[in-house]
Write a structure and sequence with these properties.
Layout (H helix, E strand, L loop, with lengths): L15 E8 L7 E7 L4 H12 L7 E5 L2 E4 L9 E2 L5 H5 L4 E6 L5 E11 L9 E6 L9 H13 L6 H7 L11 H8 L5
Parallel strand pairs: 4-5
Antiparallel strand pairs: 1-2, 1-7, 2-8, 3-4, 3-6, 6-7
Length: about 190
């Protein structure tokens, strides 16, 4: 009687989700198109959003998906679910859109839409930014209204806050620019 080894199947790669992350209410279009594994934890998705949008992760955040709140334990309110325990696929269920809010003072609301599901493939087995538009507003600028004032002041040398905002902004600040290669360079360093 011969012994045969049981056939071991390699683990299945997770399907990928193509998401569009858009900063709601911004005076100029600011958005990113991402490819992420369906089984990404919401805590890790937070890190991805911070990187591709250009935020510094200096403030609290929360996901709102299908009427439920997900975030870091102990923040926001007692009904918040821990983001470390939930994957995007589990939290989304059949939903196709949700919100991510960053900085509860400035209230940067990001509308996130599931555009499509992509079968797992070796070349798409990692998080990627596919395209985007617009520079991330500076931290603590006062939300979308403060960002509008900031842009107005930068464009008008006679504005009473022009010099102040020039000092605040990077000298190469261009609100319309998005550096896709730089975003993917940061994402390539992630290990989940």
């Amino acid at each position: 009687m011969s012994k045969t080894a049981a056939k071991v199947e390699p683990p299945q790669a997770a399907p990928m989700l193509q998401l569009k992350v858009e900063l709601a209410g911004a005076p100029l279009p600011i958005w990113r198109r991402l490819l992420v594994p369906a089984n990404i934890k919401l805590a890790d998705l937070h890190v991805v959003i911070q990187m591709v949008m250009g935020w510094q992760d200096d403030h609290q955040h929360i996901f709102e998906i299908d009427g439920r709140l997900y975030g870091k334990s102990g923040h926001h309110d007692d009904e918040q679910l821990p983001e470390r325990k939930y994957t995007l696929a589990d939290a989304l269920g059949a939903k196709r859109s949700f919100r991510y809010i960053y900085d509860f003072g400035d209230d940067w609301e990001h509308r996130i839409k599931l555009e499509k599901r992509v079968p797992p493939q070796a070349q798409t087995a990692r998080v990627q930014c596919l395209e985007g538009s617009g520079t991330c507003p500076p931290e603590d600028i006062g939300g979308v209204w403060g960002y509008g004032d900031f842009l107005d002041a930068l464009d008008d040398p006679e504005h009473d806050r022009h010099e102040e905002f020039l000092d605040w902004a990077d000298e190469n600040f261009d609100p319309a620019v998005f550096d896709l290669a730089e975003a993917n360079k940061h994402l390539a360093k992630l290990k989940f």
